[in-house]
Design brief:
Largest sheet: 6 strands, mixed
Order of helices and strands: EEEEEEEEEE
Strand order of the largest sheet: 2-10-9-4-5-6
Distance between the termini: 37 Å
Strand content: over 45%
Structural class: mainly beta
Shape: globular
Number of helices: 0
Radius of gyration: 13 Å
């Protein structure tokens, strides 16, 4: 089983990034998927969840209206479109089923 995140980087406040998570070794389309982040010195924070078909999504209040989660089951890939980024979005972002976890991709928002 592998979950491999990519797309992180450094961006100025107000900028955008698109994270991807490539899944393999399990039936991706059968699992709800989540993005979880961990900022330096803080505990993990759930960010967003998407159901198996992609038609139902959930967000933590701090990212509503700025982040969009989506998935492509044909490509076994999860996405997180992040717009209007703020310094407080700086964190290591993980994709996870809560059984399987990726290694994370770093997002840094700084001027």
């Amino acid at each position: 089983v592998q979950l491999v995140e990519s797309g992180g980087g450094m961006v100025q406040p107000g900028g955008s990034l698109r994270l991807s998570c490539a899944a393999s070794g399990f039936t991706f389309s059968s699992y709800e998927m989540n993005w979880v982040r961990q900022a330096p010195g803080k505990g993990p924070e759930w960010v967003s969840r998407i159901n198996t078909g992609g038609g139902t999504t959930y967000y933590t209040d701090s990212v509503k209206g700025r982040f969009t989660i989506s998935r492509d089951n044909a490509k076994n890939t999860l996405y997180l479109q992040m717009d209007s980024l703020k310094p407080e979005d700086t964190a290591l972002y993980y994709c996870t089923t809560y059984v399987y976890w990726g290694q994370g991709t770093q997002v840094t928002v700084s001027s």
